[in-house]
Amino acid sequence: MAPSYAVCGLGLQCNVALPALSGLPPPARVDVRVTLGALPADAADAGETPDYFVDEDVDQHGVPFMSVSRVAGGRYYRVAYGEGVTAIVDARGAAVWATWSGAMTVDDAASYVTGSLLGFVLRLRGVACMHGSAIAVGGKAIALVGPSGSGKSSTAAGFARLGHGVLTDDILALRESAGVFCVEPALPRVHLWPQSAQAMVASWESLPRVSGQWEKLRLDLAHHGFLFQRDALPLGAVYFLAERSTGMSDPPIEDVHPTRALIELVSDSHATEYVERAQRAQEFDVLARLVERVPCRRVTPSDDLGRIPGLCRAIVRDYERIAAR
């Protein structure tokens, strides 16, 4: 039987076992079928529309890091990564195929499938999906949101060190039911830059790379004695991580007005640049309801990675205060 995994509220079935997903529970149903090593026959050579998204960032050879185009009359999307991975995504978000070239490996390709491509699939299926981490505090999920480099993953690892379960790192999938927003658990790992890993884990030098193409390291939670929150939790609060500041002992925390919070959440959504207009409008409506119902706060971390545990404790104290109100 093909291996299958419950990820972000979806059931993923793959033609090969994915070590990065080992330990995840099997899903109640299969929502997305993943095929590594081949592309669908009716899409591989099908005509395509001109690229409607091309990344402005390019590699040393002038190749965009990513481009997206529609193929086979709109039945599929072709996503091409400059590192050598090419993926075909069913327009309904029901199937993903991926191949690779050069020095890339099946594990490298899998890291794209469980990363940006998974975020794209969630958006295609109508699931609001942000760049962010989430941890468990008092039976609720606390979301950590901010631009790349703001320290979301490092802070999530800091919470793990304090004994809190991690729901997700990077892909924060939201489900809305009866007016309650829940965060779905994703993968049992956190991705850290080497300097952050050094501050968080004693044996950081033994951590594997996320991919042979990236410097980020993979911290497998269970392997290092940390908790992975396997069940979805109601969203208790959103904490926006501001630009890191120098010389602070106590991180300042303040309210974020719903209008401002909405703008920032929309800008931090997965695949914002290349999802269809109707999908973006649907997500805007979801996030507009979220900021009216869930407390949104801004915290300014220190640029000293050694102060991350103090940052985490300050967030917990702040959340307990607003939850009591």
Provide the fold topology.
Blueprint: E1 4-7, E2 10-14, E3 32-36, H1 41-44, E4 53-54, E5 66-71, E6 76-81, E7 85-90, E8 95-100, H2 106-113, H3 116-124, E9 128-137, E10 140-145, H4 152-161, E11 166-168, E12 171-177, E13 180-183, E14 189-192, H5 194-200, E15 217-220, E16 233-241, E17 253-255, H6 258-267, H7 277-293, E18 296-299, H8 308-324
Parallel strand pairs: 2-3, 3-8, 10-16, 16-18
Antiparallel strand pairs: 1-2, 4-5, 5-6, 6-7, 7-8, 9-10, 9-11, 9-12, 12-13, 13-16, 14-15, 17-18
Helix pairs in contact: 4-8, 6-7
Instruction: Please give the order of strands in the largest beta sheet.
Output: 1-2-3-8-7-6-5-4
Q: How large, in whole angstroms, is the Cα Rg? A: 19 Å
Q: What is the strand content?
A: 25-35%
Q: Helical region count?
A: 8
Label the structural class: alpha+beta
Shape: globular
- SSE pattern: EEEHEEEEEHHEEHEEEEHEEEHHEH
Number of strands: 18
Distance between the termini: 50 Å
Low-confidence stretches: none
* Helical residue percent band: 25-40%
Largest sheet: 8 strands, mixed
| Mean pLDDT rating | 89
Describe the model.
The protein is an alpha+beta fold and 325 residues long. The protein has helices spanning 41-44, 106-113, 116-124, 152-161, 194-200, 258-267, 277-293, 308-324; strands at 4-7, 10-14, 32-36, 53-54, 66-71, 76-81, 85-90, 95-100, 128-137, 140-145, 166-168, 171-177, 180-183, 189-192, 217-220, 233-241, 253-255, 296-299. It has an eight-stranded mixed β-sheet, with helices on one face. β6 and β7 (85-90) form a beta hairpin. α4 (152-161) packs across α8. The longest helix is centred in the last third of the chain and has 17 residues, at 277-293. The chain is globular, with a radius of gyration of 19 Å. The mean pLDDT is 89.
